[in-house]
Amino acid sequence: MLNAWSPLLEPPITGRRIKPRNCGLTMILDKGLTTLETKEWLDLTKNYIDLIKLTFGTSALYPEAKLREKVALIRDQGIGVFPGGTLLEIAIFQGKARDFLSKALDLGFNYLELSDGTIPLDLRTRGRIIELAVEKDFTIITEVGKKSPQDNLNTALLLQIAKFDLEHGASLVIVEGRESGKGVGIYDQNGEIEEYRLDFLAENLPQEKILWEAPLHRQQVELIKRFGPNVNLGNIPPQEVYALECLRLGLRGDTLLNTVKGEGKAQLV
Q1: Structural domain of residue 111, as residue ranges?
Q2: Is residue 79 part of a domain?
Q3: 154 with 145: CB under 8 angstroms?
Q4: Which range, of 7-21, 121-135, 151-165, 227-241, averages the lowest pLDDT?
């Protein structure tokens, strides 16, 4: 529905799922919006956001009362919220994973992200942390891929880890794209999609279980063209929520063009 423009206009791309949904998810990368900014922003965008990541280790820098307030505000809008996977990596490295899970639960987070983008993490430890998170009633999301281009994993190994995570209780697997969208995951050094990587993962994993980090506009366009409006996309900057939803609905030329091809000439009526 196009709100102020409904029922006069209809979305050119149909089939977009509404919340609550298990595919077509949009995950936002929050690098430090204030509570007031978050409230005003969610008043406009809450219908188009499914997940918010307080990225990197940023949640560790909030005054605790403000963090609790912000997390509660997000959850009150029916949106999942979680600290960045880097913070859990630090807890694992310091031997404090169990305590981290308890603290995250106490702070109000309802999702957790497990990654090994920086630290080495064997499958046994990975599986145990997923299971512990599920036992505490977190929705656990995992991330596959390394943050450094020099350490980028081959696609077969990415798939193996993703399947392992899902089998051990992960609800969703993020394919690493970083904030830059370059040189990691399915992207080359210029941010272009490496088709063989995309094809291999897409053919071997259920689409509703993959969240593609796609911070760049051209990446979002290509993934929507490839998989449709209900592809799961992440690492979206807060100010681009509307822009992405317009792509999903065909309200931008990038995706509208494919929709109108072959439809004949436009008519004034």
Answers
A1: 21-252
A2: yes
A3: no
A4: 151-165
Q: How far apart are CA 36 and CA 17, in angstroms?
A: 29
Question: For the domain that residue 141 is a member of, what is the CATH number?
Answer: 3.20.20.70
Instruction: List pLDDT tens digits, range 89-114.
Output: 999 999 999 999 999 999 999 999 99
pLDDT above 60 for 264: no
Tally of domains in the chain = 1
Give the DSSP per-residue string, the chain. Answer: --GGGTTT---SS--PPPSS-SSS-EEEEES---HHHHHHHHHHHGGG--EEEETTTGGGTS-HHHHHHHHHHHHHTT-EEEE-HHHHHHHHHTT-HHHHHHHHHHHT--EEEE--SSS---HHHHHHHHHHHHHTTPEEEEEES-SSGGGPPPHHHHHHHHHHHHHTT-SEEEEP-TTT-SSSTTB-TTS-B-HHHHHHHHHHS-GGGEEEE--SHHHHHHHHHHH-TT--EEEE-GGGHHHHHHHHHT-SHHHHHHHHTTS------
Instruction: Tell me if 161 is assigned to some domain.
Output: yes
Residue 224 counted as domain residue: yes
Look at residue 43 and tell me if it is in a domain.
yes
Q: Which of 191, 114, 87 is nearest to 149 (CA)?
A: 191
Helix pair 123-135, 155-167: axis angle to 10 deg: 30
Confidence of residue 261 (pLDDT cuts 50, 70, 90): low
